[in-house]
Amino acid sequence: MSTIHFHRRTTATPEQYVAGLTDFGPGRSKLFDNSSDAYLKVHHQSGSHADITEGSGGIWERLHYDWSNPARVVLTTIDSNVWGGASGHVYTFTRQPDGTTDIDVVVTRDGKHLTGRLLGFVLGTIGRRVLDKAFENSVRAIEARNKAGRANAGRSSIAA
Question: What does pTM read for this prediction?
Fold first, then answer.
């Protein structure tokens, strides 16, 4: 089993990052590299919970998303072709006095068979950089999305 930790400081608020993380519509792959639209299936979604299948590159997992705590989002793997056991993700958000947000992510990968265990080992060692880059890309994409939203809101109020 591999447990991988990531940390980033972002200009996005926790609410903005959670809004991106829980946007299960088309184009999700623009925010999250490892979530191809071809794999995306929303099984159930309510106010602060969702049951989603997503993945890419031949690897998929069905995840239960829980964002009922505004400072923490928990993704628990329900089923996968590779991951089992204690697999999942935990995002923790800490607001900073300067208006930025610290995001701490813990990814747990518990392979359900030999291929999953090997992949988990690779991700926990040399593959960590790939996951770190994907996380960095998601932070940047959500920041850009929020910046574009503020610019469009400014244009709307000027036009009005």
Answer: 0.90
